[in-house]
# Entry
Amino acid sequence: MTFANAGTLGAVPGRRDELVAHLTKRSNLLEKLGCLTYEVGINDDEPETVFVVEIWESAEAHRSSLAAPEVQASIAAARPLLSGAFGGFRFEIVGSPLRD
Amino acid sequence: MTFANAGTLGAVPGRRDELVAHLTKRSNLLEKLGCLTYEVGINDDEPETVFVVEIWESAEAHRSSLAAPEVQASIAAARPLLSGAFGGFRFEIVGSPLRD
# Structure
């Protein structure tokens, strides 16, 4: 069952766009780990937040990805850009009106 | 610029699965209105919530869709299933690590 993670990441003031650049850096690894969608965005009403929507082949694929050394290194590299504020939600996808 | 809406909809106790069925009913209209992705899901940790992630061609396409008569009718039909609790966030998509 595919799995979705919709999240908000607080950025250190003035460093939102660096965090966006970091999160959107091209990665072939994510696809190999089972990531189907990974959209990164901003909302000018919340100028110190980066938003992400991820869809994964399964909750397990998402969980496993977090342990991959390259992903761990990427998280470590992002740390100086993060304020520590996180939000969002996760769910198992059960359907879509766009497909049968 | 594509636009994302990640939302939580509170269901009337015991009616979550009806709300899921309503939201996942096949619609050709949504695509015509500019909806690119519409994933609906659940999380057993929050058994009275339905989760959605939508991606639209633009914020304007999403806004316009809400005024379409068929969408208005669908929202009205869902109303008895909704507790009135809503959450989530919206953002402009600026990139993805899965594409150049």
Notes: The domain at 11-87 of chain A is CATH 3.30.70.100 (Alpha-Beta Plaits). Helices of chain A lie at 16-23, 29-32, 59-65, 69-78. The beta strands of chain A are 3-11, 35-42, 49-56, 82-95. Chain A has a mean pLDDT of 97.
